[in-house]
Automatic annotation (TrEMBL):
This is V-type proton ATPase subunit a. The chain crosses the membrane at residues 414-438, 459-478, 542-561, 581-602, 646-663. GO terms for biological process: vacuolar acidification. Residues 51-128 form a coiled coil.
Length: 707
């Protein structure tokens, strides 16, 4: 399987790049994606490196682009995406990009500030229009319902009436001075109105009269753009002291006060002027929106390519900050890990970068010898990337170790299907995965894979396809079609009356209802209607799970042998692999053999006295073996084949010896080697004569170094 079975062979290389060609060369290497650079300035702060100013300029350009993206989202303008990935622009193009972004940002800020000012004016005029309309209704209602002379002679209505009329009222037969009330009108958020009214009553001791009405249409906040419900109010009072107090309360509740004329003619004239100004503002606001829309539409055509270009420029300069300068300050020195198989492609990329920069001095790539452990690089494609991500989530393999990903391609979907196991639901999963695979290019073009939820499914589309296929297989074995059983091949049971007083009954294979021949493939559908279906199915699935789990464990141990042989770790084979295999075989492989024997040799007639696997395994470890008594009450623990007691005792003792062998022998040998009391090399040479260990013997120092 090539590099899929083991990680790529890596080498440490040293690069010598001319200063004028470094940008183009790093850009070409970034497009290849085959190089991992090392930081040659670990002690230098990020703010003290050579290209920190260029990185800051890129951060500033990203900030401006994010500002433009937010503006596009506010107006619901989609960004044009052609699917092309532009290359990193030349360094001199940064100035043009900065100028373009600066112009767009300033223009958008100016448009936004103008639009905000216009909206604020429009809001004030709209509120004033509602105030004039509502207060006119207040005054007309007062004139129509109250007699001025009656209000003047009635002390309970004097203040309210005279204030509402807004006129001087004098008693016809007396020489009293005219009683006149002042008033203020304004607008307040509807939610604050109850608290506002209580505060006025308490602060003014009930010497004011408040009249309020809700606006029918919500108003738009010029800053946030939210719809706000407001109420119009008018407050009547007497005296300058109350007037000052009322205005302070209005200011505290963020109420907006507007001038309101006293006479109907003046109010009518002001209302006409307000409506004229509102119409003019609507025209100007519409022109502002059109201009803003044109600017954003023009920016949306290039937004994706601008983002990619800026991010590539920033990545290049951040990579250049990892390089070191030579003594002449004209050459950049870098160290990087790269796959050995791709050295020619890397050389070609350096050559293209040098030619693009116009440099006459070629870039130099030298391989370096090192004792450092290289990074692990597993080459993937769109099919294997999902499985490799699952493996890497649990832990990245050591350099050149066996990669579990190709085995996970089969084991992960199959073990999922063992738990899922439904033909109908598996078919739905398969259809969904096939739909994503067939529409792969369209979904990528629509950026559907960038969605957090759907992107997770899209990246694992091939995994979902295999999970659906295996779920259909196991569902066919379990005879589950949307949780219903189907009689496809004819049941092996002949049950005429399946109901009694309890509704269902247990199936017994010792009766004549069973024909003696099992269902041709999978589970017999008759078990879904039996009383003992849960115990039967759970027993079957539990034994199957044990077998699959033990096979999985053995597979992992065998893969470790491949690693030991590849790295020449003979000591690990003798001190780790052999005791692990013996321990697994003595306990778990023996359990698998018992399960298979019980399935094959135990007949329905013997099922009542069949050996219990759980009790048998416990008795095996406890060296407990009971005899069959006269009443046959202990049949479950009776040895059921000759020599069982001796074989099980030997296996338990062997498993017990493997524990100290596995845990203690290797540390003891290495400790004795360190103290000079034992020559481990001779021991390794001795055991290498066995057929299993016919591998190359590395120096012991390299083996100790790995541990």
């Amino acid at each position: 399987m090539g590099s899929l079975y083991r990680s790529e062979e890596m080498t440490l290389c040293q690069l010598f790049l001319q200063s004028e060609a470094a940008y183009a060369c790093v850009s070409e290497l970034g497009e290849l994606g085959l190089v991992q650079f090392r930081d040659l300035n670990p002690d230098v702060s990020a703010f003290q490196r050579k290209f920190v100013n260029e990185v800051r300029r890129c951060d500033e350009m990203e900030r401006k682009l994010r500002f433009l993206e937010k503006e596009l989202e506010k107006d619901n303008i989609p960004q044009l995406d052609t699917g092309d990935l532009p290359e990193a622009p030349a360094p001199r193009e940064m100035i043009d990009l900065e100028a373009t972004f600066e112009k767009l940002e300033n223009e958008m800020k100016e448009v936004n500030s103008n639009a905000e000012a216009l909206k604020r004016n429009y809001l004030e005029l709209t509120e004033l229009k509602h105030i004039l309309r509502k207060t006119q209704g207040f005054f007309e209602e007062a004139h129509a319902t109250i007699d001025p002379y009656q209000a003047m002679t009635d002390p309970n209505m004097a203040e309210e009436t005279v204030g509402l009329l807004g006129e001087e009222v004098r008693a016809p037969t007396t020489g009293q001075q005219p009683l006149r009330l002042g008033f203020v009108a304004g607008v307040i958020v509807r939610e604050r109105m109850p608290a506002f009214e209580r505060m006025l009553w308490r602060a003014c001791r009930g010497n004011v009269f408040l009249k309020q009405a809700n606006m029918d249409v919500p108003l738009e906040d010029p800053v946030t753009g939210d719809q706000v419900h407001k109420s119009v109010f008018i407050i009547f009072f007497q005296g300058d002291q109350l007037k000052t107090r009322v205005k302070k309360i209005c200011e505290g509740f963020r109420a907006t006060l507007y001038p309101c004329p006293e006479t109907p003619a003046e109010r009518r004239e002001m209302a006409i002027g307000v409506m004229t100004r509102i119409e003019d503002l609507n025209t100007v606001l519409q022109q502002t929106r059109d201009h803003r829309h044109r600017v954003l539409v023009a920016a949306a055509k290039n937004m994706r390519s601008w983002l990619i270009k800026v991010r590539k420029i920033k990545a290049i300069y951040m990579t250049l900050n990892l390089f070191n300068l030579d003594v002449t300050q004209k050459c950049l020195i870098a160290e990087c890990w790269c796959p050995v198989a791709d050295l020619d492609r890397i050389q070609l990329g350096l050559r293209r970068g040098t030619e693009a920069s116009g440099s006459s001095v070629p870039s130099i790539l030298n391989r370096m010898a090192t004792r450092e452990s290289p990074p692990t690089y597993n080459r993937t494609n769109k099919f294997t990337s999902g499985f490799q991500s699952i493996v890497d989530a649990y832990g990245v393999a050591v350099y050149r170790e066996v990669n579990p990903a190709p085995f996970t391609i089969i084991t992960f979907p199959f073990l999922f299907a063992v738990m899922f196991g439904d033909f109908g639901h598996g078919l739905i999963m398969l259809c969904f995965a096939i739909w994503m695979i067939l529409r792969e290019r369209q979904l990528i073009a629509k950026k559907a894979h960038e969605d957090e939820m759907f992107g997770m499914f899209f990246s694992g589309r091939y995994m979902i396809m295999l999970m659906g296929i295996f779920s259909m297989y196991t569902g066919f074995v379990y005879n589950d079609f949307f949780s219903k059983s189907v009689n496809v091949f004819g049941s092996g049971w002949t049950v005429n009356d399946f109901t009694n007083s309890t509704g269902t009954r247990a199936l017994d294979p010792n009766t004549t209802e069973w024909s003696g021949s099992p269902y041709w493939y999978g589970m017999d559908p008759v078990w879904q209607m039996s009383l003992n279906k849960i115990s039967f199915l759970n027993t079957f699935k539990m034994k199957t799970s044990v077998i699959l789990g033990i096979i999985h464990m053995f597979s992992g141990v065998i893969l470790s042998l491949s690693n030991h042989r590849y790295f020449g770790n003979t000591l690990n084979i003798f001190c780790e692999f052999i005791p692990q295999v013996l321990f697994l075989s003595a306990i778990f492989l023996y359990l698998v053999c018992i399960i298979m024997a019980k399935w094959i040799y135990i007949t329905p007639a013997d099922s009542a006295c069949a050996p219990s696997l759980l009790i048998g395994l416990i008795n095996m470890v406890m060296f407990k073996y009971q005899k069959l008594d006269k009443n046959k009450t202990l049949c479950a623990v009776v040895p059921w084949y000759p020599g069982q007691q001796g074989l099980e005792s030997f296996l338990v003792i062997l498993a017990g010896l493997c524990i100290p062998w596995h845990l203690c022998l290797k540390p003891i040998l290495l400790y004795m080697k360190h103290k000079g009391k034992f020559d481990v090399s001779k021991f390794l040479v001795l055991i290498s004569y066995f057929p299993t260990f016919q591998i190359r013997i590395y120096p012991l120092s390299s083996q100790i170094k790995g541990h």
